[in-house]
Amino acid sequence: MSSYPITLAIHGGAGTILPEHLTPAKEQAYHQALEAALKAGYALLAEGSDSLLAVEAAVRVLEDSDLFNAGRGSVFTSDGTHEMEASMMCGRTLNAGAVAGVRNIKNPVTLSRHVLDNPDYVYLSGDGAAEFARLHDVVEEPDEYFYSQFRYEQWQAMRTSEKMILDHSDERKFGTVGAVALDLQGNLAAATSTGGLTNKQYGRIGDSSVVGAGVYANNETCAISCTGYGEFFLRGVVAYDISCLMEYKGLSLQAAAEKVIMEKQVALGGEGGVIGVDQSGELALVFNSIGMYRGKIGAEGKTQVAIFGENA
Ligand code: ASP
Predict the structure, then answer these.
(1) Is the N end or the C end of the chain the one with fewer CB atoms within 10 Å?
(2) Does residue 281 belong to any structural domain of this protein?
(3) With a 6 A CB cut-off, is 278 part of the ligand 1 pocket?
(4) Is residue 311 part of a domain?
C-alpha cells in the first residue's frame, strides 16, 4: 500500500472580508459550503480516486453555490454578462487544461478537465471553447441561472465607471475558488475557477486560468491555487514562483508561499492568497488580505474551515 497521506485544501476567495459585514447566518452558509466542498473532494481521495478528480469535485461544489464568484455566483461584466475562467493541472504528467471567456457553462472546471484530457490543447477561449464544450456534452445553463440580486447590485454600482472591481466589492474581496490535493498514489493536482472582476471589459482575463500564475501542479514540488488581484498575480507568476523557490532554492512549501505572498506580492501591490500542498502532505494557506475563505483536511483527517485570522 501507498504511504502518501491524502490531503485536500480549498479556497473561496480572499480579500477585505470584514467580520461586521458577515451576518452569523451568512458566515454559517460559507462554512457549510466550504465543508461540503471538502467532503466531496475528500470522499474521492479516501476511496482511492486520483487528485484530479478530487479537486474537480471540490471546485464543482463551490461553483454550484451562489456565495462564490465562480460558476453560478459569477460576477457581471461591463456588458451585463458572465464570462468565466477555469484551469486544472496534473502534478504527475504536467498536463494542464484551461478555459477563458466562457459563458453559460455550469461548471467551467469540468470544461477545463476536458481540455486537460485532450492532447492537442491546453488553453481555449470564447466561442471556440463553447464549441468544444458542446462536443463534450458539458452542461450549459441559461443566463438566469447566473443571476443574483447581490451581484447585479454590485455591477450597477460600478456600471457608469470605467473601473472594474474585485468581488464583493465596496471593499476588495476575491470570490474565486480553488482546490489542491494529494492522493494515495502521491500525485498532486490543482484547480482554480472564477468569474473574474465585476464590470470587467475588453475580454479581460485574470490569473485564475493562466497556468503558472493562478494554478500550478508538479509532483516534484507542489500544487497551488491562487486568489487575488489577477493583474498582480499574473505579473508575479505566483503559482510557478512558489514551485520554483522549492525546486531551485530548496524552500519548504510554507516558506516559499510566504515569500511570494507576504513579501513579493506585497512589494508589487498585489492583494490575495494561495493554497498549496506538497507530496509529504504539508499544506500552506497563506494570504496577505484580511481574510480568505478556506478549508483543509490534512494528514490527520480533521476538517477545518476558516475565514479570518492567521495564515493557516
Ligand atoms: N484572481 C481573480 C481575477 O483577478 C480574482 C479573484 O481571485 O477573485 O480574475
Answers:
(1) N
(2) yes
(3) no
(4) no
187, 160, 294: which is closest to 309 by C-alpha?
294
Is residue 215 situated within a structural domain? yes
Q: What is the spatial distance between Cα 290 and Cα 264, in angstroms, rounded to a whole number?
A: 17
Catalytic residue among 176, 198, 221, 227: 176
Q: How far apart are CA 118 and CA 22, in angstroms?
A: 42
Quick check: helix, strand or coil at residue 213? coil
Residue nearest atom 9 in ligand 1 by C-alpha distance: 196
Which domain does 208 fall in, by range? 7-306
Q: What is the pLDDT of residues 55-99, one digit of tens each?
A: 999 999 999 999 999 999 999 998 899 999 999 999 999 999 999
From residue 170, alpha-carbon distances to 72, 154, 174 in Å are: 21, 8, 12
Q: Which residue has the cell 497521506?
A: 5
pLDDT at 170 over 60: no
Per the confidence metrics, is the pTM higher than 0.90? yes
Is the alpha carbon torsion for 79, 167, 106, 287 positive or negative?
A: positive
Q: Can you tell me which atom of ligand 1 is nearest the CA of 204?
A: 9
Distance 195 CA to ligand 1 centre (A): 8
Any catalytic annotation for residue 176? yes
**Residue 2 falls within a domain, yes or no?**
no
Helix (H, G, I), strand (E, B), or coil: what is residue 68?
coil
Which residue has its alpha carbon closest to ligand 1 atom 7?
227
